[in-house]
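User:
Note these tokens:
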Amino acid sequence: MSPRVPEIVLDTTLADLYGGIGLRQGQNPTLLPCYWCSDIDYRRDIPSTSRYLYQGTPIPHGTDETKDLVVQCLSLECQRFLFAAGSIEAVLFDVNEDGDCRGEAAETLSVLSKEQQPNICFSSDLRDLKRRIPQSQLAVIVPHERLSTHRQVINPDMLYTLLSKRFLATSGLPTPPSVSLDLDELDGSAEQKLALASLWISCFKLPRVFKTQQGMSSVGTFVIRTEQERRDLINTLSTWILRRTLAGVTPKNKHLYPSTLISQEMINHAGECFATSFFVKRGGECIFLGACRQEMSDSNAWLGASIRCLEQDRLRQRLWETISRISNLLATKGYYGPAGADIILEYSSNGRQTLQPLIIDLNVRMTGSLSLCFLHGHFSERRGIHDACITQRLRFSLQRNHFQNIFAREVVSGQIIIVAWYYDGKKKFSWGMMILGGENAESLEILYRRVKALAF
């Protein structure tokens, strides 16, 4: 028997935010919170993208890695996003034909107050989705050409452009000095373009940051400090990432610049860096939602994020001008909805010192840390818990109820909130994502280590 999980009441939700921009009752969009891949089919009826090319994930090796990727993209990431959705229609696809993810997703979202639970439309595939919600207007995380028959909040070509690294580099917003190589504008074969890209990368003085056009969770961002790392990057791009992208470029998508590379000046001595979340209104006004610190691996992969509730007012004032500029720009492109930006507050580079905030990444979509921003009342105001974090997926050799029993005190007190869970009945292990809370940074770190020690 599992411990009693307290009801979770969010400060606000996406449904509230969409409702606050003038949409009438029943006009909120339908959320489709899925990442797509350009290289593999999730399932036969959920194929890879061909118009919109992404470089966000390496090709999995074997059936097990493919299954893990599908679970992450169709179940875990989606549950995490929908935890912040509120009372709005949302779509979840089945991971397999058995529909074994439905019960886990329903249990994850059941801890929310009744008024803040999304109305889930479970769908087996993309064609089934059209039959189930033929009139709905979709708000997607990233576009897929197979959704072109649906009405969408944002033109999919424009959304793909706004999500690209090229857009930020050429936007006029305050960013590190950047140079782009638009390979899709050039004539020549793929081999010639790969050779040109290699030569171009070799020309820059190190250290340097290089980015592909459409990476996610920091995949596709390469921090290069040594000549060996430069050689490794050239090999990685030439043998699979850029080679695969160039193979997918056609006259129908080359205007989207899928093969563009970005070279960015390294910020050597950065001060505080925050992953901000905000909501863009139709007129360009914005609503500040929160600012988190990101946790990154040595290879620059996203591991999670943390928030300090007591410093949010200070950060809102410090970041307001920058996110307002972003919101105004996005609104001119027809965008409204959730967005995020990674912003450095203070930095020095090449001997120059500045206090001007600098945008190093732009995420024109729901952010991975959005749910953290909606839990100030739950944690800080009602429980005296002022620090919290959200984890990347963790793997456990036990089911959800067993995990909750091990951490019964923290679950009952509201310190541990499961925001995504998937149990693989064949392999007998689970994937989980959760939000953890502590009275301060030290107690939060202790709890995180206890949870991490249970994972494998």
About this structure: The two ends are 24 Å apart (CA to CA). The longest helix spans residues 227-248. The CA atoms of residues 9 and 452 lie 26 Å apart.
